[in-house]
Amino acid sequence: MRITGALFRRELKSYFATPVAYVFIVIFLVLMGTFTFYLGGFYEQGQADLRSFFNFHPWLYLFLVPAISMRLWAEERKSGSVELLMTLPITPWEAVLGKFLAAWAFTGIALALTFPIWITVNYLGDPDNGTILAAYVGSLLMAGGFLAIGSCLSAFTRNQVIAFVISIVVCFGFLLSGFPMVLDMFSGWAPQVIVDAIASLSFLTHFSNISRGVIDFRDLIYFALLIGTFLYANTIVLQWKQAD
Amino acid sequence: MIKIDGLTKHYGRHTVVDNLSFHCEPGEVLGFLGPNGAGKSTTMKMLTGFVAPSAGSASVCGHDIATDGLAARKRLGYLPEGAPCYAEMTPGSFLDFIADVRGLEGNERKARLDEVVEMLHLGPVLHQSIDTLSKGFKRRVGLAQAILHDPDVLILDEPTDGLDPNQKHEVRELIHSMSAEKLIVISTHILEEVEAVCTRAIIIANGRILADDTPHNLAMQSRYHNAVRLSLGGDDNFDEVEAALAKLDSVDTTESDREHGTITAVAKSGSDGASNWHKITDLVNNSNWNISGLQLEAGRLDEVFRQITRGEKV
């Protein structure tokens, strides 16, 4: 715990030691605003809720979260600092968890900075703040899922561009796994159980459940399992790549 | 303290480290010597647990690096090749991070941090980002990180690479000052470094140990061991001196360097140093040559190194 904490603090500080954090947060907020007000028709709907805001989160995360996760391990391997890190008395779990939690906290900070829109909607009308809070929780969980996938894939390569592109593709698959685009690839030959299982992996279904204000235990378990699985895979990839 | 047994590493079909075995104890400064690509860094990576061996085992302070790696890594300090660092951090925050990970607390933590900053003269750059530091400072930050927790075993991969002569001297002094109670392993291809700091040298090439001895004993294998070098004040009787030296029965051959005005009289193998030296000094005393310098050679490590690593018999 002490070591994970030390890593977490180092990582989080390093985001703000470079322009990365500021560029990311500004772009994130600008895009969120643009999507909500122009594409989402926030005013036109005439309803005091944040649905038009949260609807775009999965699609923004698809591009912005891999931009954070791509550097997690690829950069360490490129600069050679992974050798320094992994020869300290640190277990792979502590290293993976510390880095992941810092990246997650960073996206949490970016997400929290969207609070003006919450103020706006409360000023304009009388929204259900419980639903909004649930949607924020769902959004954060989804960001965690994307990050865990990206972190794992980042450990495969020392090239950040490759990590970025592969993460987008895999995350896109997870986003759309409930849709015909992905399901058709399996429905021809795989048994129905597997097709159903793949359909149930969709980020969108689980996120939209939560963002409607229904925090179902199953949705929470889904994200927890997803994050846990990919972080576990991350430790394995890390050790496997290290041995070479 | 460090025990390596049959350590082997293959990359694909290529064998980088081939059945390496040795052990060493505290108080030793072990120099790991070899041409580039000899397997020095790979051996160090296996010893610190970063790279898993294909076969064989390594242990540090009794902890096997494969099965008890965490305990082993707690006892050692490691400077990886090229001293990689987190470039966006400052040396101050970087060392704080290492102290956190190493579990240093309270007064001990403060004392250790102050001590390494003092030892490696990092004071002036403590709050500057590592990115902007010179190569020498970056290397010293890496060294500071390795010695921060006062480890029993110190493994330094090319610790003086990229340093200027003064900095090299300081790092060697540092290694020397810590050598009494620690076991220090350094890899280098700078031979003067081995002579300056190491108590033992292992020469490896193609992943195999070719020689394992003290630098002094290794130098004795050189054909220049017990050779006498004469510096002549002028060029007048260069040929006469060389001819006279060649006639001595303790001298095998002579090598002359007209440009620098020196003649080296190589001793016959098996003859003791004193006899060659006495015969030549007698010769010089009884002549009226203009001799400006006379030096008995212990042997040339670079020559031994070249011969060993080329696979020639010394």
Describe the fold and architecture.
The complex is a heterodimer of chains A (244) and B (314). Chain A has 244 residues and is mainly alpha-helical. Chain A is built from 14 helices and no strands. In chain A, helix 4 packs parallel to helix 9 (129-154), helix 4 packs antiparallel against helix 10 and helix 5 runs parallel beside helix 9 (129-154). Chain A starts with a helix and ends with a helix. Chain B folds into two domains: 2-220, Rossmann fold; 228-297, Alpha-Beta Plaits (2-Layer Sandwich), CATH 3.30.70. In chain B, strands 6-7-8-3-9-10 form a six-stranded mixed beta sheet, sandwiched between helices. A four-stranded antiparallel beta sheet of chain B has the order 2-1-4-5, with helices on one face. The longest helix of chain B is centred in the middle third of the chain and has 14 residues, at 106-119. The A-B interface holds A 2-3, 5-7, 9-10, 13-14, 17-18, 79-81, 83-84, 86-91, 242-244 and B 11, 45, 48-52, 70, 73-74, 78, 80-82, 84-89, 93, 97-98, 100-103, 129, 142, 145.
Give a concise summary.
Chain A is an all-alpha fold and about 240 residues long. Chain A has helices at about 1-15, 20-40, 50-55, 55-70, 70-80, 80-85, 90-110, 115-125, 130-155, 160-175, 180-185, 190-200, 205-210, 215-244.
